[in-house]
Design goal:
This protein has 119 residues and is mainly alpha-helical. The chain contains seven helices and no strands. InterPro entries: ARM-like, ARM-type_fold, ZER1-like_C.
């Protein structure tokens, strides 16, 4: 399994190194989505490797890419949080989520993920 082979750290490292690549940001967020889907036990690994700020950075860099926005909202809704756990980081996340809602009003799946996160 990808997680046992260190896949979470590898994927987050790719995202961190290749911020200028929309494709890497998209594909990496998709991989993380599939790792976490139905397996919340891996949330702590993503959090421990700095996933919150890396994923938030992808949202900020690619606001027009609905899939990145949706994947990020899902990942955050699963409990990925900043380290240290500070309120200002959550404010940044909420700002990105509201921007995603505004930028993609016709994307039902993104809207559902984003609204679910704001509940």
């Amino acid at each position: 399994e990808i997680v046992k082979m260190g896949g979470i750290k590898v994927v987050l490292t790719l995202m961190k190194r290749h911020t200028e690549s929309e494709e890497i940001q998209h594909d990496s967020s998709e991989v993380l989505y599939h790792i976490i889907e139905g397996r919340k036990k891996y949330v702590s690994q993503i959090t421990d490797f700095g996933g919150f700020s890396i994923i938030l950075g992808a949202m900020k860099k690619y606001p027009s890419v609905a899939a990145i926005q949706e994947n990020a909202c899902f990942l955050f809704s699963q409990g990925i949080h900043p380290i240290p756990d500070v309120e200002s980081a959550y404010e940044g996340m909420i700002q990105r989520v509201l921007e995603a809602l505004r930028n993609h009003p016709d994307d039902k799946e993104l809207q559902e993920e984003a609204l679910g996160l704001l509940l």
